[in-house]
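User: I want to check something. If I give you two sequences, will you return the structure for each one separately, not as a complex?

Assistant: Yes, each is folded on its own. Here is the first sequence with its structure:
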Amino acid sequence: MNKKLIEIYYDKDCPFCKRYADFLKLKDNFELNLINARENQDKLKDICSELDINNGFIVVFNNNFFQASKALEFLNSAVDKTTLLGKLHFLFKYNNIFSKSLYKFVFILRKITLFIINKNHKI
């Protein structure tokens, strides 16, 4: 069986981003490629120059690009629903306002956390 590729560009230095990427359980149905955006800025600019990684993580699937809450919504359709994260993903599917608000809250919390651990929030 040929699995379709999902690439996720994220900030590996961010504890929230790293934990989220570690919890993703997509490997049963997809080939998952987690890419540290801090180390692959040129590649990211080459494939989707219209998106700024500083506005949220980016998911690439079948030449489509999803960012921030849209990326969460896409991953909801792909994540294994039997895992804890998969069970929580239903929150992002049914209420777009909730998903955007939660993402913005975590995004702000990310900036604060990176400041506290002395990392630049800009990639």
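And separately, the second sequence with its own structure:
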Amino acid sequence: MKQQICILGSTGSIGTQALDVIDQHPDLYEVYCLTANNRVKELAKQARKFRPAAVVIANEAHYKELCTLLEDLTDIKIYAGKEALDQIVEAGPIDMVLTAMVGFAGLSPTIHAIKARKKICLANKETLVVAGELICSLAQEYHVPILPVDSEHSAIFQSIVGEGDNTIEKILLTASGGPFRNHSLEQMKTVTAADALKHPTWEMGSKITIDSSSMMNKGFEVIEAKWLFGVPSEKIQVLVHPQSIVHSAVQFADGAVKAQLGVPDMRLPIQYAFSFPKRLPLNGDRLDLFKQPLEFFEPDLNKFKCLALAFESIRQGGNMPCIVNAANEIVNEGFRHGKCSFLGIGDVIEQTMQRATFDRSPDYDTYIQTDAEARRIATELMNK
């Protein structure tokens, strides 16, 4: 039987690469549902190729256009709206859900998928950043596996497979350092969104690429690693590794370090999440260790305030990571549209952390309220 896959965010970077993986293994995987937010033409094109049972366009304004684009394909059901995302992941035939949506919007459908006992292939890091304790509790309650798709967390996962209950002494979380790794603080005052979108090693969506340039992306990955692997943040060390060859590593109680290496290709962690514990053939480049040295540096927390703020949000706990995520989504978009300076990203997030209502023991409703409040505060601060 082919595994039926629902891809939340099929038109983004992760979604399109996941479809390439499925295309390479048509005997093992089949697309049950594809979803997008605004890219209606891309979604229709994907639907024509993969012929899913259903498609969902989250932005209802595009529903009529999608219906028109697919009017001759009467076997594909077409839905629209955010509630449709929550409902489609519960469909009986679905075996696994790839959560490749960007931002807070991925939280609700992920919760619905867990409650429907679907295997979660997690590419939406904000889900664990915002509500890690809730998600891990639900996964345990419903006996649902959460398999990481981020290259770093997949590397950590691959490094601990077979280690049983052996104690993790430290997680070594690698970061490329982004395009501004060698910039001075003075130089960073004038960088533009176009500069920030020129990532040296990875091809990603614009939101994640900006987060990588500010190193907020790495801060979020620290939070994600804490929940995925049950390791406190003080045992997670960030290493700037410009070559992006060592995707991350784990140090054990005896001092041994295990790492996963490979070329920068997101299809590998996507496929591993789909196929675990099996390793399937994958077309693509292979790593040549003779080509370049492997370098590692400590991150500069003075230059990259966002990474420091992420660690601070873990220290405070409660809904503070949710506050940081909401503020970051606002200023990330603001920076891309010229409404905020690059260094202003960290300043607005820090001030939002100081002003938003802190809750040490949040529930789902608290997260919804916190997200709305933090977005409002960050917007006001950015527009001053």
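Because they were folded independently, the notes below concern the second chain alone. The CA atoms of residues 263 and 285 lie 7 Å apart. The longest helix spans residues 364-382.
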